[in-house]
Design a protein that fits this description.
Order of helices and strands: HEHHEEEEEEEHEEEHEEH
Structural class: alpha+beta
Distance between the termini: 28 Å
Strand content: 25-35%
Number of helices: 6
Number of strands: 13
Helix content: 10-25%
Radius of gyration: 21 Å
Strand order of the largest sheet: 9-10-11-12-13
Largest sheet: 5 strands, mixed
Mean pLDDT: 79
Low-confidence stretches: 207-212, 214-222
Shape: elongated
Amino acid sequence: MSEPVLLGAETVSLLCSLLEAEEPVITGYAVELHPMAAASLIEHGLLVPAGYDDVIGVETDGQEELVSVFPIDDGSALGYLDRYAGFVAVPPERLLRRRVDVSEAFRYLAVLLDVPRSHTPAEIVEGLCWDLGSARFAERPQRHSVWFARRLWDAATRKSVQTMLERRPHIRPRLILTSSTSSAGEFVVPPDTLTISVLDALKSPSGKFRFMLRALLPVGGA
């Protein structure tokens, strides 16, 4: 990924909502509910196949409901029973479950943040917080330590991240990017640490996530 793509607000919002789930997975049914955003994440390799669902959303008597999917007797197709049409075959792609490829998401962020390509994101809190490396913002010559955390609304997650911040001080202000909203709960961080919700970065007039960090970062001390 040599040049960062411009992901729209709807796409990034879906990505953040998936990262905030206990398991960052989206069902085939949910993909149909967010067709444009999901298609963009799939196209750029941020959503990858992760097995198949055993239910599907169908319209019955004007109402949407989830029905179980099963193979036909000879195993040649998967489908469900409709009270009027009988067995209705379902294309496998409609049942495909997808998972956020966290490594690919971090590679995307690394390009946007001008993180050296030689750096590999390091897991700090298992499945919840990662060290993305040292990033340069705007035209500033200094590099700043950048972490990414998810599910900061959870008290246990906040405590774990706070503990690691205290154990790993940095000589320059550290930035913590998060998929949580800015109102996810009180998050006490050491001095010279800035927490930014990715969703806050979407509030620019363009609605594009190319990183409005230069506007969000404090001028002093950078």
